[in-house]
Design a protein that fits this description.
4 helices; mainly alpha
Length: 103
């Protein structure tokens, strides 16, 4: 018996498909496009080949996200942890400022 992971539930909308087509026209790598949307490269290939979203036109260059590569999930997690630590440090600093201003 083969066990499969639960589907992510992520779906591309018409707006997403327009961006996918624009990113493809810009020659972005399928891997990078897929990473931006959080889908697999097969979904990107379906859009770029015309198998899906045939009626959708490519988004113009000025509407596209910056070209990849994009941060990995691991890098995003490390960034989030660093931001939480920075937030804690800022909150402590604000408390210290408030305490000193009361004197």
């Amino acid at each position: 018996m083969t066990l499969r992971a639960e589907a992510s539930g992520r779906r591309l909308s018409d707006t997403d498909a327009a961006l996918v087509k624009g990113m493809g026209a810009r020659n972005d790598r399928h891997h990078d496009i897929a990473a931006w949307f959080g889908v697999n490269q097969g979904r990107i290939a379906e859009v770029l080949s015309g198998k899906k979203f045939q009626q959708v036109a490519a988004a113009p260059e000025h509407q596209l996200p910056p070209p990849g590569p994009y941060s990995s999930g691991r890098a995003a997690h490390h960034s989030l942890v660093a931001l939480e630590e920075a937030n804690s440090a800022l909150e402590l600093a604000l408390q210290n400022i408030d305490l000193r201003s009361r004197k």
